[in-house]
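Anyone else keep sequences and structure tokens together like this?

Example one:
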Amino acid sequence: MKHKVTLIPGEGIGPEVATATRRILEASGVQFDWEEIAGRTGDSGDQAQSVNQAAIESVRRNHVALKGPMGTAIAGGAPSVNVALRKALDLYANLRPVKNLPGVKSHFENVDLILVRENTEDLYSGLEHEVVPGVVESLKIITEKASTRIARFAFDYAKRHGRKKIHAIHKANIMKLSDGLFLKSVRKVAAQSPEIEFKELIVDNACMQIVMDPLQFDMLLLPNLYGDVMSDLAAGLVGGLGVVPSANIGDDCAMFEAVHGTAPDIAGKGLANPTALVMSATLMLDHLGERTAAERIHKALVKVYREGKHTTRDVKGKAGTDEFADAVIAKLDS
């Protein structure tokens, strides 16, 4: 079976890691019909440009996308393309597995976490305005519908993948209405799944707890903003954003992406590490029903890291992007 997939290479090092990932995917024997398209209008890399509507339509047609990193202007410029894609396609569930890779320096071993983040509302709704000069108001939107939907996704995922425990992360002690609604919605779903242990944790305490002992956690379920912060925090436990995958999943479409930066300082030099996008691509393969290929690629990736001969500079190796991809491909059937 040939899979029609939208490929959004991204910016900076994005095209390099996307090309390497595409080579590895095709070497697995799975057949793809790629529809490559820019994430922004004009494909100039100018962060003042908005999301490319043609990219949204492509994903709607193909239902699956693989996306490289894209930059977001800070304190000005156009809205985030990443957020715009998730909202336009109603990719309400952000899935962030966090697990150690052999040879990647970390303060902890045997980390194995799944973070599930609501992806469409909260402060990321983008509803903000200047009340008077020097005073800005941002609206935090929490709905029962979105909170219930993401809770069901998390508990269903836990059942399918043999996960035993979910912590709901909140700040309902202060934001009693908004985070309170999130928590109440999650509690209702949790009550329908007594086989999954359910716990609650205030977000600031959760941040402290996860850096003290991440092994106490199995899955975390979070609203949008806390999910964004804590998923990056969790990535830091195993080596950073360059070695963790990300998936954005909705009822009709799914987008799998690298969430690290565009690294313009090394763009075009063949030094970028494609690991995050490769790992995201294995999540995509699993989503497409190509589980055997996903497992082969993941095992090959782990072998390359365990040997340590062909890893990239960001993880203390000496290999370039192409050499790393070649090494993974060589390990596919070894």
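And example two:
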Amino acid sequence: MACTLGTGDRARRAARWAALTARALRQASRTERGLRLVFGAGPGVEDELRSLAALERDCCAFARWSVTAADRRLTLEVSGDSEEAVAAAQALFPALM
């Protein structure tokens, strides 16, 4: 289970995630099937989170990327079905855990 992005694309994607988490991340935690990131619903946050999740579905197809909105919070759930997919999902954001 490896990232299919090239080095330059990976760096640009990581920069987008870093900017979003620095601006709006409220909580990060591991779950039984992967991880959960909770963001505050500020201006542009939902659009960027949904855009990034859609991009990740293409290059990290081993995981499910689900975004839900409720109570001025946005929750990203990244989960896998196999042991390897769960471990890979949990390793996606090492700086946050």
